[in-house]
Design a protein that fits this description.
Two copies of one chain form a homodimer.
Chain A (H helix, E strand, L loop, with lengths): L11 H14 L8 E2 L1 H8 L3 H13 L3 E2 L6 E3 L4 H22 L5 H16 L5 H17 L4 H21 L8 H14 L2 H20 L10 H5 L6
Antiparallel strand pairs in A: 1-3, 2-3
Chain B binds a DNA duplex (30 and 30 nucleotides) through helix 3.
DNA sequence: GCGCTATAAAGTGTATGCACTTTTGCCATG
DNA sequence: CATGGCAAAAGTGCATACACTTTATAGCGC
C-alpha cells in the first residue's frame, strides 16, 4: 500500500500495463529507461511476480525490451521502425474509416468532437498531453467499429506510434493535427468511404512527416555522429 | 525432465508458446480446449510459473482466452472474428508484397518454391499439415521484407487466421492454394507491385471464401442441430 | 429416480525464497 | 593517474507454498 493505485477488485496486472503505457506515450518514460521488476512492483504495490508478468505483456506489445537476465527497458524505436509502424497504422486505420464512413451516429460525432476540444484546450500545455489525446481520438474511432480484433491492433499500433513520436519527434509538432481531426470527423460522417480513408491516410502521413522528417532526435544517441564535429581538432 | 522438450540453454517459455501455437494451427488443439497451468507445465517440464507466463503471451496474441479464476482455453473465433482477421491480414500482406515486388533474389524464390513443394507433397496427408505449410509460406514471405515489426504482425495474424480455419472451415478446402502460391511467387518476382498486391488480396479472399463461406462447422457444436436427424426414430 | 446441497478436489492468484547472472564500485598495480 | 580485476550489490529466472475461487462429486431429502 505504497501508492494510491489500488484498483483492488480489478486486475492489478492490467493496471500496471496501463500505467506504463500511459507514461510512455506521454513521454514520462523515454526509450532506454530502465524498468526493474522490484521497483515496478513496489511503486504499484504488488510483488515482483505481477510486475514481471506485466512487463511480459508490454514486451509482446513492443513497448518494452526484454532480454534474458537484463533489466527491462522502454523500447527505443529506430527511424526505420517508426516508418514501418506508420505504414501499418495507415493500413489499419484506413479499414477503420472504411467501415465507419457514413455510419457515425450523432452521439459518436459528439464524443469525437469532445476529444478534439480537449486537444484544443491542451495545445499549449505539456507536450505529452497532446500526444495522449491525439492517440485517444484514433483509438475511440477504432472502437466505434465494434470490431474487437481491429480495435486491438489499432490500439497497439497507436501506442507504438506514440512511443516513436515521443522518441524521435521534435517538440511541438502536433499543432495542425487538431484541425485535421475535425475535418476527418466531418468527412467520415458524410463523405464517401474511399475519400474518407484517403484523408485518414494523408493525415497520418502528415503527422509522421511533420514529426519524423527533420527533427530526428535519434542522432543524439549515436556517439559517432555526435562527436564527429569535435573530432577534427 | 519428463519429456524431451529440453531446449536447455534457450527460453523455455518461448518453447511452450511455439508448441501451443503449432498445435493450434495444426488443429491438434481445438477452440474451447482447456489448458490448465499445471498440466501444461508438467508436459513441458517446467513449473506453473512459466506455463502461466506463456499463457499470458498467447492470450496477448489472441490464441488463448484467459478469464479470471478460470482455466485458460483455446480461443473460439466467431465467423465475424474470422472475417475481421482476414480483412486485417489482407491489408498487412498487401504491404509485404508491395515491399517485395521486383526485389526477390533467386535464393528467396527457391526457398518459397521449396515450401510450395512441401505443400504439394502434403496435400493428401493430414489436414493440419497443409494449413501449417500454407501459413509458413506467408510468414517466410513476410520475413523477406526484413521489417521486424511487419513480420511480427503478419505472423500473429496468420496464426489467428489458421485458428479460424481450423475452427470454422470445412475439411480439404485448401487444395487450390498450392497453384495460387506458385503464381504468387512468379508475380512477386517479376510483375508490378500493384498487380502482385492485388493478387495476394485475391488469394487471401479466395482462401477465406472457400473455407468459411458454407462450411461453417460451428453449427456442429450445437447439439440441437447435431441430433436433429436422430430425433425422429 | 431426480434435484439440491454440502464437501472435497482441482485450479488459479500471488508472495516469497533461493540460485544464478549481470552490474557496480573499489582497490591494487603498473 | 589510468587500468585491470575482484568482490559486493542489484537484478533476474524459476520453483514452491498458501489463500481463495471455481468445479466436480457424492450424499441427502423428496
Amino acid at each position: 500500500m505504497t501508492t494510491g493505485a489500488r484498483t483492488v477488485g480489478g486486475d492489478r496486472m492490467a493496471a500496471i500495463c496501463q500505467g506504463i503505457r500511459r507514461a510512455i506515450i506521454e513521454g514520462a518514460l523515454l526509450p532506454g529507461d530502465r524498468l526493474p521488476e522490484d521497483a515496478l512492483g513496489e511503486s504499484f504495490g504488488v510483488s515482483r511476480t505481477i510486475a514481471r508478468h506485466a512487463l511480459g505483456q508490454l514486451a509482446a506489445e513492443g513497448l518494452v525490451d526484454l532480454r534474458r537476465n537484463r533489466i527491462a527497458t522502454v523500447t527505443a524505436p529506430t527511424p526505420a521502425d517508426a516508418r514501418d509502424i506508420f505504414d501499418i497504422r495507415v493500413a489499419l486505420e484506413r479499414q477503420v474509416v472504411q467501415h465507419l464512413a457514413g455510419h457515425l451516429s450523432a452521439d459518436q460525432v459528439a464524443v469525437l468532437k469532445d476529444i478534439v476540444q480537449q486537444e484544443h484546450d491542451a495545445r499549449h500545455g505539456p507536450d505529452g498531453a497532446s500526444i495522449r489525446l491525439a492517440t485517444e481520438f484514433h483509438i475511440r474511432l477504432a472502437e466505434m467499429t465494434s470490431k474487437p480484433i481491429l480495435v486491438r491492433y489499432v490500439t497497439e499500433i497507436c501506442y507504438r506510434a506514440g512511443l516513436s513520436l515521443a522518441a524521435l519527434a521534435r517538440p511541438h509538432s502536433s499543432e495542425c493535427a487538431i484541425s485535421e481531426h475535425l475535418a476527418l470527423i466531418d468527412l467520415i460522417a458524410r463523405g464517401p468511404a474511399d475519400k474518407a480513408a484517403d484523408m485518414m491516410a494523408e493525415h497520418l502521413e502528415a503527422v509522421a512527416t511533420r514529426a519524423l522528417l527533420s527533427g530526428d532526435r535519434s542522432r543524439s544517441r549515436d556517439l559517432v555522429n555526435i562527436l564527429q564535429p569535435y573530432a577534427k581538432g
